[in-house]
Amino acid sequence: QWEEALKMFEVMKEDNVEPDTITYNALISACEKEGQWEEALKVFKAMKQDNITPDTITYNALISMCEKGKQFNEALKLFESMKEDNVAPNTITYSTLISAFEKEGQWEEALKVFKAMKEDNIAPDTITYSALISACGKRGQWEEALKVFKAMKEDNIAPDTITYSALISAFEKGGQWEEALKVWEDMNEAGIPADIYTYNALISACEKGDQWKEALKVLDHMKAVGVPGDDHTNKVLIRASKKYGAHQWQNVKEVQERMMRQMNKL
Questions:
Q1: pLDDT at 175 over 50
Q2: How many Cβ atoms from other residues are within 10 Å of residue 220's Cβ?
Q3: Which distant-in-sequence residues (6+ apart) come within 8 Å of 214 by Cβ?
Q4: Mean pLDDT of 23-39
Q5: For residue 32, which of 62, 60, 5, 57 has the smallest C-alpha distance?
Q6: What is the pTM of this model?
Q7: Among 16, 22, 78, 151, fewest CB within 10 Å belongs to which?
């Protein structure tokens, strides 16, 4: 508990036990785990006042805390402070900062951070690329997301379920249902399991492209591999059945009934 950690810290100070970097890092980490980003920043301020030198672990914990709390401006300030203190960022630092911009839909800023990462000769990993693809995809920048995915392959970084789901989601938002299905095929061939986010993005992509038969194929596959649907799945299916009905009157009842049966089984 972060409150207990703060109390112990105060007792240390009263007993004239001088805290060091490790002490402050532990305290910041305690606050970070509880989502207490404001308290963690107070601890960081006290650390500076005590002339205790922060290290990469310190800054990574603080930036991660701001990323989780959607405080991307604070995360950026910390990154700038890190450079001023001549503390070397690592893959975790850059990945977390990119993720912070991803949460805010700031895809251009995320790309700038990635460029700086490359210039610093810091190797990106799967988490880095997944966050970057997601950042581009959230704003419908499917072409940029695809470029990032190709760069990932060129760097011999293996994509995972999150990576593929982010790319499929990017195509879904960009109205590229065929591309989304191609990525899904590649995903299956690579032996990467799809999750609920993958399937929801695929179904939504097919719905937007008026590809109801394809959507039903995705549903059949989803059922076959035992991935349960959620509320979002149901909403997309209901929207799809209504939209289908508006265009293909002869098959309305059959398609709607099948979709409802699928929904009940998910």
A1: yes
A2: 11
A3: 177, 181, 206
A4: 86
A5: 62
A6: 0.84
A7: 16
